[in-house]
Task: structure prediction
Amino acid sequence: MVYEFEGKTEREAVEAAARELGLDTDAFDVEIIESQGGGLFRKGKVRIRVHVKDDVSSPAPVSEKLDASEVPEERVSASKIPADEFEQSMIEWTKGIIERMGYAAEVSVAFREPKKLGLRIDTDSASILIGKKGRNIDALQLLANVYAGMLGHEDTKIVLDSENYRLRREESLVRLAYETAEQVRRTGRSVLLEPMNPFERRIIHTTLNDIIDIETKSEGEGLMKQVRVMLKGRK
Amino acid sequence: MERDLVEYIVKSLVDNPDAVNIKVIEGEKSTILELRVAESDIGKVIGKNGRIARAIRTILSASASAQSKRVILEILD
Result:
């Protein structure tokens, strides 16, 4: 396996690599691919490529073991670097689409989870790229997942985000769920919410799951169903 | 512009990228893109319940050039 890391100095880059990979510094080979010396007021930058023998791969990241001297900013920049060819391809593909849409963007790794890869889009055109109710970013995400499948990673879910849209959308759905429950309780009438995708519906269901007198169910066909919020035991 | 975008997306999703062909018909108020792919790839471009075709059209309509002119994507078989 080959990974890339960077730091202000070669030593920092190597330490970042060891930390991210959960390996000792002598467990991999280091190749310097870019080196800019730092001046008195200028930050230096060193990019290294790390070759890990496949038999010693122990991927568990040990980010908790940071010493106090570590600057968090560097942790982020180290993990943002694509760790393998697949991540690199996904980043380039996403960037390629956005560029051809006529917008400038930077794409980087936001998070990695087992069978999940989060990509972050930094752009001045976030509002159009996200679209109304996330229409555009959801369309891009759907295609990104198909493309991941073409690369042989059909079991990896790709999550695209920009300006923390996913989190903001989740928060607004939780708020909507509570407000709707309150309205149902006040009027005694059920409320049918607008069509939502499975992920969004799940947020509504789970938010209201713990409220004793309220019940939710999905209505309709296809991917976009509507959630009905109602008093328990009543239609 | 729009043609590049559609070509880039479609070629990344099909098994036969060389068979992807797009004809651009420029109108006064709208641009029509006629897309042809290998017969075996049609399902890949359309997707279950038309999901993929819809996603491609959504992205197309969010592109910068589509803000001033209507862009229509037709998938021919």
About this structure: Confidence is low (pLDDT under 50) at residues 56-78 of chain A.
